[in-house]
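Troubleshooting log. The previous structure file for this entry was overwritten by mistake, so regenerating from the original sequence record. Sequence copied from the archived sheet and checked twice against the printout by T.R.
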Amino acid sequence: MWKFVTLSILCGMVVNVMGTAEIMSHVTAHFGKLLEECRQESGLTTDILEEFQHFWREDFEVVHRELGCAIMCMSNRLTLMHDDARMHHANMHDYVKSFPQGELLSGTMVELIHNCEKIHDDIPDDCDRIVKVAACFKVDAKKAGIAPEVAMIEAVLEKY
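Regenerated output below.
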């Protein structure tokens, strides 16, 4: 009996992790659609723009200041940041919840981003700080099992 209960719990955890990664693929695809609009404003080169499409790949390094500027621009267009370029928690929750089953992901995502913001809060330049927060979030999202595979994102891109 205990083996069945343990197996049921483990299966539920695997389904939840897979579900949140799939939700993250929708969030990533939708958010990424704003990248071209923010490319010029942020000074993002076409090379970095091309690389950003592979944000979740292991070999993509989140290091370019311009990428932080682009993320800030994209976040502002969706009102996901306050005027001080820090995450607007309620708006981020609402944004993630706007995707199918987003309520499964929103709390974890906001918590991970907030924790990364606290780590890098002493960086005065908004773009530099945001790129550090994004790099931190990528690592923590992978550890938490919510990072999508690139193929998952490509599969939902046409919806946005």
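Confidence is low (pLDDT under 50) at residues 1-18. Archived copy saved in two places this time.
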